[in-house]
Amino acid sequence: MGCSSCSTGKDGQPKGCKNNGTCGTDGCNKLTVFDWLSNMSLPNGSEPFNYVEVRFKNSRKEFFKNTDKLSLSIGDLVVTEAKSGFDVGMVTLTGELVRVQMKKKKAIIDGEEVYKIHRKAHQKDVDTWQNCRDREEEIKKRAREIAIALKLQMKISDVEFQGDGSKATFYYTAEDRVDFRQLIKDMAKAFSIRIEMRQIGYRQEAQRLGGIGSCGRELCCSTWLTDFRSVSTAAARYQQLSLNPQKLAGQCGKLKCCLNYELDVYLDALKDFPNQDTKIFTEKGVAYCQKTDIFKEMLWFSYKDDAANWHMLSKHQVNELVARNKNKEKITSLEDYAIENVVEEKAMVFENVVGQDSLTRFDKPKSSNKKKRNNNKKRNNNNNNNNNNNNNNNNNKSKNKKRPVKNAKK
Question: Where is the composition biased (Low complexity) (predicted)?
Answer without folding.
Answer: 381-397
